[in-house]
Amino acid sequence: MTEQGHGGCCAPARVASLRPRSGDPAPALAPGGSGDTELVALEGGWFQMGSDDAYAYEEDGEGPVRSVRVDPFRIAARSVSNRQFAEFVNATGYVTTAEHYGTSFVFAGLLPDDFPPTRGVVGAPWWREVPGACWRRPEGGSSTLDAKADHPVVHVSWEDALAYCHWSGLRLPTEAEWEHAARGGLEGMRFPWGNMLRPGGEHRMNVWQGRFPTQNTLADGYLGTAPVGAFPPNAFGMRNMTGNVWEWTADWFSATWHRDGPRENPTGPASGDRRALRGGSYLCHSSYCYRYRVSARMANTPDSCSGNIGFRCAGDA
C-alpha cells in the first residue's frame, strides 16, 4: 500500500487494486439486518451541486456549480457505528477487507510513543501501516472499541460498506443524494449550517484544531473520531456530514463526469478504478486539506481502508 493521488494525504489507497472495473460485486450475504438505522425521508428536488469558490479543488471536479435533481429518498441521519457494524459481523461472520489483508493505515498521532517503526506513506508520513489494525482494533495490537460503541466504524472498504448495506436491505447514497442531504436545504454554503466555520464560536464538527500534523489543541473536544451523534444536526436532521470520517458513496469517481453528465438523478460513470467519498475527516485542516465542505470530494480504490473512513446508508423512498 502506498499513496495514490489525494488519497495519500486524506486516506491511503491500495494501489494494487487500481484497475478499471464495471458494475458492483454481487454481495454474498442475504438481507437480514435488524433495521436499526434511523433513516430520514427527504423529498428530493432540484438543488445547486458543487462549488466555484476559491476553496474548491479544481482537480477534484467540485465545479462548476450546476442544477441537479434527485428523486425522493431516505438517508441515515448518522454514519454506521461500531455497535451496528458489530451486530452485522456477529450475525454473518463477515470478514472485512482490512482483516483479509492483515493490515490497515492508522494516523500516527493515535499510536503510542513506543510504537515500533512500520511502513508509512510517501508524502504523508502521518500515516502508518499497522499490522492487525481493523474495525474492531482501530489502532492494531491490543486496542479495543471500549467506550467507542457509538463512534463511527472505520477501517472499512467500499466493499465492506456495500456488504453491510445489502445485509441491512439498504444501499450507499449517490454523491448527489449525499450532497443534497448535507446541504440541508441551504444553497451555495460551504458547511451544512452556513459559511462560518464556527458560528458564534461554536464548534460544529470534528476536524483538526491547531497545527497539522504535530499539534492538535482538541478545541472541538476530540482526538480521533467523535460519536456519530455528536454536534448539532443540519436542517434535514443529518449529523456529522462534514468532519469526523470520510464516507463512501455509490459512485465511481470522475473529475469531469458530474460536469458533463446528466442533471437528473446522476449516479456517476458506469465504471472506474476509484469510488467517491464525501465529507472530510477528523484529520482535515485548511493548511493542507480543506475538504471538510459539503461540495468537496475524494477518491479511493474500493478495497482501501484506513482509520478515518466510514459510511452511512441510504434507501429508496
Explain what you see:
This protein has 317 residues and is α+β, with helices and mostly antiparallel strands. It has a single domain (7-17, 37-316), classed as paralog of FGE (formylglycine-generating enzyme). 14% of the residues lie in helices and 18% in strands. It contains six helices and 15 strands. The chain has helices at residues 7-10, 82-92, 97-101, 158-167, 175-183, 257-260, and strands at residues 21-22, 39-42, 45-49, 66-70, 73-76, 103-107, 127-131, 210-211, 215-216, 246-252, 271-272, 275-278, 297-300, 309-310, 314-316. The chain has a four-stranded mixed β-sheet with strand order 13-12-10-14. It has a three-stranded antiparallel β-sheet with strand order 2-5-15, with helices on one face. A hairpin with a 3-residue loop joins strand 8 and strand 9. The model is unreliable at 1-7 and 16-23 (pLDDT under 50).
Could you provide a short overview of the structure?
The chain contains six helices and 15 strands. The chain is an alpha+beta fold and 317 residues long.
Key terms:
single chain; 317 residues; paralog of FGE (formylglycine-generating enzyme); 4-stranded mixed beta sheet; 6 helices
Number of helices: 6
Distance between the termini: 39 Å
By oligomeric state, this entry counts as single chain
Low-confidence stretches: 1-7, 16-23
CATH architecture: Alpha-Beta Complex
Anisotropy-based shape: globular
Spatial strand order of the main sheet: 13-12-10-14
Strand content: 15-25%
Indicate the topology:
Blueprint: H1 7-10, E1 21-22, E2 39-42, E3 45-49, E4 66-70, E5 73-76, H2 82-92, H3 97-101, E6 103-107, E7 127-131, H4 158-167, H5 175-183, E8 210-211, E9 215-216, E10 246-252, H6 257-260, E11 271-272, E12 275-278, E13 297-300, E14 309-310, E15 314-316
